[in-house]
């Protein structure tokens, strides 16, 4: 809501003037016209407070006045045809925008483009919003990585517990008889042994993949900690 209100304020056009002398001329004309009316109807000298009132009126209106895109109060302080402006340059780095003061001649500046100014404000607001999201992710990502590692280790432990190991030596020492029952037992034992080897092979691949994920997760955590430090 507050951001939308600020945007609406930015969309309200300000009174633009090419030179500060244009605004000063209007101010003097208003003051002269007001003084003329007062002297005509009231006569005598004009109260000094009236002149002060006219000046105060323009000071109150100053936030809505601009000289070629520069706030009127800043343009009014211009000395020797030059004015100090706060210029932003570069990009955000760790949430900071690099800025500098630059001496600029108002007459040498390009004409003010209000539409471009609004677009710049919108882009800056988007950058600030993205910076906030990035900061939040820096706080939550390490915990998420820990949860992923914990889950992988749990799955790996369950896989190991479900493996049925068969002692090959005991299989070799079994007495083989020519009866059909003994033959069936040998075949079942052989199948069980082959299945165990297959499970171990799959487990080996799974462990290798999990280790690779753990290494990548550890690298991400180290990069995040190094970046935050």
UniProtKB/TrEMBL annotation:
GO terms for biological process: mitotic sister chromatid segregation. GO terms for cellular component: MIS12/MIND type complex. It holds the Pfam family Mis14. InterPro entries: Mis14/Nsl1 (IPR013950). It comes from the Eukaryota. PANTHER family: KINETOCHORE-ASSOCIATED PROTEIN NSL1 HOMOLOG. This is 3300_t:CDS:1. It comes from Acaulospora morrowiae.
